[in-house]
Structures are given as structure tokens and as C-alpha cells.
Amino acid sequence: MRERMLAGDLYLADDPELQEALLRAADLMDAFNSTSAREPAEQRRLLTELLGAIGPETYIRPPLRVDYGSRLRIGARTFANFGLVALDVADITIGDDVQIGTNVQLLTPTHPVDPSLRRQKWEAAKPIAIGDNVWLGSGAIVLPGVTIGENTVVGAGAVVTRDLPADVVAVGNPARVIRTLGGTAS
Asked: Quick one: how far is CA 95 from the chain centroid?
């Protein structure tokens, strides 16, 4: 099942191998979420063990929620405020110098529209990519398969349903570009 999941194909999440990976991540996530800001070395150690990669000078404020952790890669000097949810069934790549507001959700899982497949617990996922120097406002939600270009600002509460280019400001549900940085969008 793991191979199907990694390929982006439909898979069953209750596969024993996947369940063990979820439990491992849950243990590390619980340990991280119970640390104090006075324990930065322990926080860093736990994140290094949990995540696929974490760049230098990157800081994540607990609580953090992930599915596996190992499919989440975060660049250098990135800051994530309280309550980041990164459901990393597929890869989530976050660039350098990214600012993530409170309660942001990065959601890679998808579910079949066909009710019989959903009833059988089939699911899939699509990757998310966040470029360098992006700012995700508090409460923003990024849906499966989305890429956000560098320097882009996503407004608080926006729901990003499709790719956003570099150097724009996007707001709303669904998120839409309202201007380019340095000028007005046409």
C-alpha cells in the first residue's frame, strides 16, 4: 500500500505498515507538542527526527499536526506559528524564509467522489509546494496539488484551490489574485 500512496494512487490508509508510520509520527508529534519554548534544542531534535527535512534557523511553534512527518520538508529560516496542520500523505515542500500564520492547514489527502470507494476507505493525495519567501496568513487553507510561487502573500482565511504565481497577493474563498507585488493585477 505504501508504494501506491507514494505514487499518488488510491490506497487504503488502514494498511498495517502505514498505521505503524502514523503511530511513530504521533509519538514524536506528541513529544514535540509537549515541549516548552525554553527547550529549543529538544524541539529541534524532535523535529529533525519527525520531519523529512528542516532547514537551519527554522522554528515551528507547537502544536504541530502531521500525518507522517517524513513527507514534510521545510527550508531555512522559515517560521510557523501555533497550530500548523500539515497532512503529508503526499509531499509538502516549504521553501526558505516562509512565514506561516496561526492555524494554517496544508492538506494533501483527496478522497474519491464515488461513494462506494469512499465507503471502502480508499483515498489518495497530491503534493503541495510553497515557494521561497511566501507568507501564509492565519487560517489559510492550501488544498491538494497546489503550488504557490515565491514571494506570494496569501491572505488570512483564504482557501487556495489552485496554483498561485510568484509575486502576487491572493485572498478569499476560493483564493483569487487581487494584485501583483509592485503593481495591480489585471
From this structure: 11
SS3 123: strand
CB 58, CB 64: distance < 8 Å: no
CB 170 within 8 A of CB 135: no
Instruction: Give the global pTM.
Output: 0.94
Coil vs helix vs strand at 161: coil
Task: Please state, in angstroms and rounded to a whole number, the distance separating the CA atoms of residues 10 and 142.
Answer: 21
Report if residue 106 sits inside a domain: yes
Distance of alpha carbon 18 from alpha carbon 81, whole angstroms: 28
* Class of residue 129 by CB neighbours under 10 A (exposed 0-12, middle 13-18, buried 19+): middle
Q: What is the pLDDT of residues 77-97, one digit of tens each?
A: 999 999 999 999 999 999 999
Owning domain of residue 109: 2-180
First-to-final CA distance of the chain: 45
Which of 111, 126, 176, 179 is catalytic? The answer is 111
Q: Does 64 qualify as catalytic in the annotation?
A: no
